[in-house]
Amino acid sequence: MNTERRTQATAPPQLTEDGLMTTASANEMSDALRLVWPQWQGATAANAAALVPEVSPERARRGYAVGARVLEAVLPPHAGPTVVVDVPATDPAEDPAASTVAGIESRSAVISSLKSALAVLAEQSPARVLTLGGECSVSVAPFAYLQKQYGDDFAFIWIDAHPDTDTADTAYDGYHAMAVSTLLGHGDPEITG
Q: Residue 182: its pLDDT value, please?
């Protein structure tokens, strides 16, 4: 697993009750992991093409990875660790192993990336996670990890233009549209496991 790790020495500014900016101490923010996950494979080439018709589908699809790195670059530094999840360069147009299986395009790359993210979370054992990611499915590992950490004290609110409750049995392909289903234990057994 090739993951890039960085720790920042300063915390982002915070607003006080009177509206003044202050900086939290490194100890106050050190329990948060900034997880940069530039995964793009969960979004199908067809969906990316529909969103950005001006460029080729594969180029549009890789825009998810660029977005994760842009978010990382514009956020202020923080005291906790920053880890970049290793994402395979698998492209369905170039690699037969990246074809659609069980409604998931580039399934092998998605599973590999998911395993890398889960390994990072287990190793870092953060109390909080800020995920800077590509498409919606990068929320699966952090939410699953946090649910395991907090048990019945954990809840999540999913705000998206789409419910992301598809499975291989629905007509819509793409793991990005299966994130909530996966978190609820429905869908691809290898991924939900």
A: 93
